[in-house]
User: Fold this.
Amino acid sequence: MKSIISIIQIALLLVVMPKLQAQDKQNQKLHIIIIGAHPDDAEEAGGVACLWAKAGNDVLLVSLTNGDAGHQSIPAEKLAKIRREEARKAGEVIGVRYITLDNHDGQLMPTYENRLQVIKLIREQKADIVIFPRPYDYHPDHRYTGVLVLDAAYMVTVPTILPSVPFLKKNPMFLFMSDRFLHPESFKADVAIDIDDVIEKKMDMYHQHTSQMYEWLPFNQGILDQVPKSDSDRRKWLGETRKGECDATPYRDKLIEIYGPEKGAKIKYCEAFEDSGYGAKLTKENLTYYFPFLKK
Assistant:
């Protein structure tokens, strides 16, 4: 009888243990949400998104608007569909989800209704990390995206706010994307991440946004005549004109601090982030937990 019970116990362990191990592995995943105002804005953190995804973490890219005003000639309804599909394809490049909401481009406001949308997104993602723009920017949609996320930050933990979506028991870490705006205060990097190995993936993500990279933005900047005609020449041109936005030089000291003097001095491209001061705090002690690819 004892031998039969032992055999049953072993059989049960063989069935249960893999499930427990799989569940434990799932629990170890980081859940990241990168929130931009328009399709192609979340790509500002596309390099680190790729690194997180490659490490097996759950990454969600979000555009709070459908981008329906961002073109010189395509009608709004048609453009919204185009940009949603472009975003989806950009997410596919690094194997993550990319969703766009139905708020109109150029009309985003920091309303309570929009705040609830952001709360819902962060809760449903069970976010450990939220990345978003600072509320200092030339574009009102960018500014109000920053405001909306900051306004949602504490509320994601409040059970009586949006009770239909389970509240978070632990407040995520809220990190600002980098920018070059100086007023009312300049961006200060708390972490800078080497993206040399994934810079081409980031450019491939941007390449999916044909309506923006090769049509609207060049038109808006008066350089539409400089855009090559073939797909391969466009991709090459995109890298030549856009990689500079990821230049590691302004963050050299932080890179040396994190990666050491030898490697830090050689990094060519990086993405930097600033702790917003909301939610969980980024520290030297938890840096490799939130950015596990920094572990040596």
User: Anything to note?
Assistant: The mean pLDDT is 93. The domain at 30-194+270-291 is CATH 3.40.50.10320 (Rossmann fold).
